[in-house]
Amino acid sequence: MATIYIVMGVSGVGKTTIGKAIAQQLKIPFYDADDFHPPSNKDKMASGTPLQDEDRWPWLDTIVVQYPQWKFKGAVLACSALKKEYRSRLQVDHKQVETIYLSASFAFVQQRLSVRKNHFFNPTLLQSQFDTLEAPESGIICDATLSKDSLVRHIINTMKQQTTSQLGLIGLGVMGKSLSRNFANHNITMSLYNRHVPNVEEDVAVQFVYSYPELKDSCGFDAIEAFVNSLSLPRKIFLMVNAGPAVDAVVTSLEPYLSIGDIIMDGGNSHYLDTERRTKALQEKGIHFLGVGVSGGEEGALKGPSIMPGGTTEAYEHVGPLLEKIAARDTHGNACCAKVGSGGSGHFVKMIHNGIEYAEMQLIAEVYDILRHHGMLSLEEIAQIFDLWNEGEENSYLLEISSKIVRKTEDGQPLIDVILDKAQQKGTGSWSTTAALQIGAPFDTIAQAVLARIISSEKEQRVKGQQHYNIEREEITNFDIATIKSAYHTARIINHAIGFETLRKASKHYDWDLHLSEIARIWTNGCIIRSTLMEQLIPILDGFDDTILFHESVIPQITNGQSNLKIIVQQAMGTGASIPVFSASLSYFNAMIQGDSSASMIQAQRDFFGAHTYQRKDKEGTFHTVWE
Ligand code: NDP
Fold first, then answer.
1. What topology is assigned to 596-628 in CATH?
2. Which CATH number is associated with domain 164-343?
């Protein structure tokens, strides 16, 4: 049985206009109660005689007998229904009748009636309508003085608010907007909320819902309590707000309205230790908290991101099917979304993803720099090299966009040449370096990529340095593209090895039970570091309990590539290039294959000046030497 909506109010308040517009939006028939008046009623009203109860009962009965025809599709009925008992009559035999009351002052309606044409209602009867009116206290009550569009929007939104949604999303910024459209495109009913800031941010969610057709079944809220109440149990709420205090503020505002078993997902780039803290605090209250890493930027969020949720299996069972629906697909058509581990692991994994991304970007920048400033190639030649590499095993999203970047012109000039050479580093890059150091994971390439951005931001100092020393960059004379490609490939493998080893260490350290092969799989599409190499790493990481550098399929690649990496590092450094990630990858590799390292000297120095003691190769125990 479908709902019959009665748009009620005094004559002239706009029932027909609004009723028709609502019916059009809901795609259900519209009826005007005036069309059911017997001629005698119309004559009375035209002559300025107010209708009495005995005039109205037969009229209402005539309407009610139409219900059997209306009840399947539903209908919108514009009807004055001024008294409570009239409305009760209109509800007889049909449980699903909703009242929409258009409220306005006498003066407002009188002004409207004064310009209304071709209507039998005599404006002198307006006072009698107001005298008869018993304004309803329930149903949808609206201010009829609003514009038609605002009124219809308000009414439709309030109707939607009365039904429950599968998922709630808070934070309609760049990512929240795209994600909610993606969820809606996958037929997931959504309740959306953005914070209310008086006179600044009002009805953001309501307006957003009306901006995109795919959100037709979604509902916008400006009040947090109504938003929470609109969600089916257990409530599933996705936060897409800025990391830090905003997440705590939103969680605090939600808490009073949540029930045991509800699930909050934080999709922002939160620090994993904050996620661990929030998870524990909410767990004590029976609320699940999942840290959900999301990668892919604005476009990925809309078309299919890579999603890295961490938390309890119990919570994932509820939200996993929704997240997996909107995620990108791997080459086998499986969702690039899987529970990566427990606790704050989702955000840790996203953080390391970003770390790998930093180093991948920096490596491409270094290749570009070598080709352009030491190989003396043109931008078109560089773009062609990137295109060629992209057709083979070096294929990656970042290389693809880099080829487009070097070809981009503005007013006939290469755009890259006018872009300021200062790179920002926000949050995840330096967090990942600190986190890796805290758990004792060597993070060479990624730390160097972060440092490279920091040095880049010191533009003024660098310009001064150039002036002081005035050392020209030199051309690499015996330049070979194949050598650079091999060095690039080798450095990338080493960088990925560093990223995955950090995950392995963190998994043990925090007891997260990370599945590295599955993480590689969900990084094969939708995210910024998707690449052919990442696909190759899925089987390598599967069940292999050591660094990928020691895998039988990787050893021959590195054996071939490391000599080229050495050549490029020597050539480029020798001719004045700054190549921190290339050189860090080589340095890491050299260190990782030295059974005997220079650390004996470090241990001796520590014992010399601080009596820190040392261990020996030739016997067990702890030793101290009186050095002088
Ligand atoms: P935006 O700045 O575009 O949007 C932030 C949202 O958070 C806005 O809706 C804002 O509301 C809301 N917000 C901010 N402070 C508060 C608060 N105190 N209380 C309630 N709401 C608040 O950011 P993005 O959408 O780009 O990013 C959101 C999160 O996703 C961040 O953590 C970001 O690091 C992460 N992320 C971003 C990616 C990207 O490519 N942009 C990719 C992956 C993750 P209001 O409109 O009222 O200010």
1. 1.20.5
2. 3.40.50.720
Residue 349: name the closest of 272, 426, 267 by CA: 272
Q: Which residue has the higher pLDDT, 281 or 25?
A: 281
Q: Percent of the chain scored above 90 by pLDDT?
A: 85
Is there an atom of ligand 1 within 6 Å of 195 CB?
yes
Can you spell out the DSSP letters for 158-195?
A: HHHHTS-BSEEEE--SHHHHHHHHHHHHTT--EEEE--
Tell me if residue 298 is catalytic. no
Q: Is 230 in the pocket of ligand 1 (CB under 6 A)?
A: no
User: Does pLDDT of 263 surpass 80?
Assistant: yes
Distance in Å, CA 574 to ligand 1 centroid: 44
Question: Residue 77 pairs with which residues in a beta bridge?
Answer: 6, 31
Query: Which option is the CATH number for 350-592: 3.30.460.10, 1.10.10.10, 1.10.1040.10, 3.20.20.60?
Result: 1.10.1040.10
DSSP secondary-structure letter at 337?
A: B
Residue 174: CB within 6 Å of ligand 1?
yes
Note the CATH architecture for domain 4-154.
Answer: 3-Layer(aba) Sandwich (3.40)
CA distance 192 to 172: 8
Q: Please pick, among 98, 276, 324, 357, the residue that the annotation labels catalytic.
A: 357
Q: For 129-181, write each residue's pLDDT tens digit.
A: 999 999 998 889 999 999 999 999 989 888 877 778 999 999 999 999 999 99
Catalytic option among 350, 360, 366, 501: 350
Active site residue 350: yes
Averaged over 283-293, what is the pLDDT?
Answer: 97
Nearest to 152 by CA among 14, 313, 251: 14
Beta-strand relationship, 97-103 and 4-8? parallel
Pocket test for ligand 1, best of 170, 175, 221 (most atoms within 8 A of CB): 175
* Contact 242 CB / ligand 1 (< 6 Å): yes
Query: How far from the centroid of its chain's Cα atoms is residue 354's Cα?
Result: 15
pTM: 0.82
Assigned token pair, 49: 């005689």
**Structure confidence at residue 201 (pLDDT):** 78
Cβ–ligand 1 distance for 250 under 6 Å, the answer yes
